[in-house]
Design goal:
Layout: E1 2-4, E2 14-17, E3 34-35, H1 38-48, E4 55-62, E5 68-78, E6 83-87, H2 95-114, H3 121-163
Antiparallel strand pairs: 1-2, 2-3, 4-5, 5-6
């Protein structure tokens, strides 16, 4: 199912919701419940950064087996913000996947150039996992330090026994 969530810059955007049927096989074995539209993320990022709307140029090609392939070239320019980005084509037999991949690449470049990130569910979940890993590592470090102190105390005791 595709939900129309409105548009920025006059472009239609969508969020795909479903149990994973009919999704790209590369998409985690079809276990995703929600697949966010990268073009919508890109438009939101441009809006937040007060940058101009991105340009997505659609082209159609045919491979050697006469299969129709869609490709999008993307560009984003905002001189006031020092943004001047362009991404090359993303070839897919499905136009929507090609457009989504092109938007993803441009969004990735935009985020890298501006030093920003997108905080979504996965980002937050990764932060929690990192904090838990850091806490576990800290606990392990504490245990190691405690064991090291015990060994050092034992060495001191042995030194005193040898001296006597």
């Amino acid at each position: 199912m595709i939900l129309n969530v409105g548009g920025l810059c006059g472009l239609k955007t969508r969020t795909r919701v479903g149990g994973g049927k009919g999704l790209d096989p590369q998409m985690n074995g079809g276990r995703f419940l929600i697949i966010e539209d990268m073009e919508f993320y890109l438009l939101r990022a441009c809006h937040k950064l007060e940058a101009s709307c991105p340009i997505l140029e659609r082209k159609v090609f045919f491979d050697m087996y006469v299969q129709k392939l869609f490709a999008f070239s993307t560009a984003l320019r905002c001189e006031e913000k020092g943004i001047n980005l362009a991404e090359e084509r993303c070839f897919w037999p499905e136009e929507s996947k090609s457009r989504d991949e092109a938007a993803f690449k441009l969004l990735d470049s935009l985020l890298k150039q501006t030093g920003n990130e997108v905080c979504d569910f996965s980002y937050r979940r990764n932060c929690v996992a990192k904090l838990q890993a850091d806490e576990q590592r800290g606990n392990e470090d504490s245990e190691i330090r405690q064991r090291l102190r015990e060994v050092e105390r034992h060495c001191e005791v042995l030194k005193k026994e040898i001296e006597n």
